[in-house]
Each structure stands twice: as C-alpha cells, then as structure tokens.
Specification:
Elements lengths: L5 H80 L5 H83 L3 H13 L5 E5 L2 E2 L8 H9 L4 E2 L6 E3 L4
Parallel strand pairs: 1-4
Antiparallel strand pairs: 1-2, 3-4
The protein binds zinc ion.
Zinc ion binds next to loops.
Length: 239
C-alpha cells in the first residue's frame, strides 16, 4: 500500500475542496451559457420570421411595379392607336384601330383592377413588417437586457472559478505528480469527487460499507487507501 503523510492527506482534502467548487461553478456557468444561447436563438427565430415578411414585401412591391409598367405599355399603345386614328384613310382601317383601342382599354381596366388588389396586399404586408419590426426591436432590447443581467450575475462566479483554479494549480505544485494524476482520474470517474471521508465504516462517496480492517487502516492514517466500491481516496476525520 502506498504511503502518504497526514499532511499529504490534508493537501488532498484541500485539493478536493477546490475541485468540488470548480465542478459546482462550472455547472452554474454552463447553465448560464445555455440560457444565453437559448435567448439568442429566440431572437434569431423572431428575426428570421421578420426577414421572411420583408421578403414578402419586396415581392409584393415588385409585382406592383410590374403591373404599373404593363399599364404604361398599354397606355402608350392606346396613345399611338389614337394618333393613327387621325390619319387613317379607309373605314376598314378605322374600324380595326378602333377595336385595337377598345381592346387595350379593356386590358388596362383589368390591369388596374389587378393593381388595386396588389396594392392592397402590399399595404397589408407593409403594416405586418412594421408591426413585426417593432416587436423585434422590443424583444431585442429585452433579450439584450436579460443577457446583460445574466452576465453581471455570473461575473462573481467566474472570478471565483478563476480563484479555485489557481488554488488547485498551487496545491498541485506541492503534490506528487502520480498522486495528482490519480486524483484527476478518480475525479473524472466520480463527477468531481475523488477524496471522501469515511464515517462509521461507510464511504461517504458511494455510501457502501467498507471492510472493518480497511476502516481501521484509514483511521490510523499513513497510507493511501481507496474505496473498494467507488475507488475514491478515503480519509478519516475524528468528529
Ligand atoms: Zn465508495
């Protein structure tokens, strides 16, 4: 069995204290980070919906322009036909041009009706975009404020984490490298709990009984003893 001094055990206990705080703070900060990501995703989703509405408005505007252009073309045709009308020589030509003007006027009427519908649609989309934009701006302000608040709250935790990481590093300098590695390995296996005290022959890590002989040895101190069930390093404090 590997030997370890009383001081060595005390160092391991201190290392565990730092490790437990590090694990706790990392969990808290991880949750904070997740919350921030969730808020950003919410804003992005809303932003995407707003972009879709803006796209709709653009196509609505383009459709209106297309019809207006077509009306212009038909209008030009009517003007030209009317000019020709003044210069025709035969009745047949006159009748033909008259029908052309008439057809174009009907076409123009139809287009104007269509344009009204499109303009109506455009107006609706415009107010939807405006509404959505205002909601988005509000949500953005709200989310940014929330994120700032979260950030502020976690500043203390982050400072504390740095402090414990530093402390762990300092302790590690005074500890045997193989012991440090063993600690890290056990900690990884046991969610950050590598060193644990034993009370009444029970390991406080896995709450299983340990053999009486082993318990006596832990109480006596001087050797590095691990729990046969969970592999955690055991120590004894007389309470
Ligand atoms: Zn155990």
């Amino acid at each position: 069995m590997k030997e370890i001094s009383k001081q060595g055990i005390e160092t391991l206990v201190k290392l565990q204290e730092a490790e437990s705080e590090i694990v706790r703070l990392k969990t808290v900060l991880g949750k904070v980070e997740k919350e921030k990501i969730k808020l950003s995703a919410k804003l992005k989703q809303f932003g995407n919906a707003l972009e879709d509405k803006k796209e709709n408005l653009l196509s609505s505007e383009a459709a209106c322009r297309d019809i207006e252009r077509e009306i212009q073309i038909v209008d030009d045709r009517i003007i030209k036909s009317n000019e020709k009308l003044r210069m025709v020589k035969t009745n047949k030509e006159y009748q033909l041009l008259l029908r052309e003007v008439d057809d174009n006027k009907k076409r123009k009427d139809a287009l104007e009706t269509e344009l009204l519908e499109y303009l109506d649609e455009k107006e609706k989309t415009q107010s939807l975009v405006q509404e959505s934009q205002e909601e988005y701006n509000l949500l953005k302000d709200q989310i940014e404020a929330e994120q700032k608040e979260i950030e502020k709250k976690s500043t203390d935790d982050r400072e504390l984490l740095d402090e414990y990481l530093g402390r762990q590093n300092d302790i590690g300098k005074n500890l045997d490298k193989s012991l440090m590695d063993q600690f890290a390995r056990i900690s990884k296996m046991n969610k950050g709990l590598a060193v644990i005290n034993v009370q009444n022959e029970v390991c406080n890590g896995c709450f299983m009984n340990i053999p009486p002989q082993l318990y006596i040895e832990v109480q006596r101190g001087g050797s590095l003893i691990t729990c046969p069930q969970c592999s955690r390093i055991l120590y004894y404090i007389n309470t």
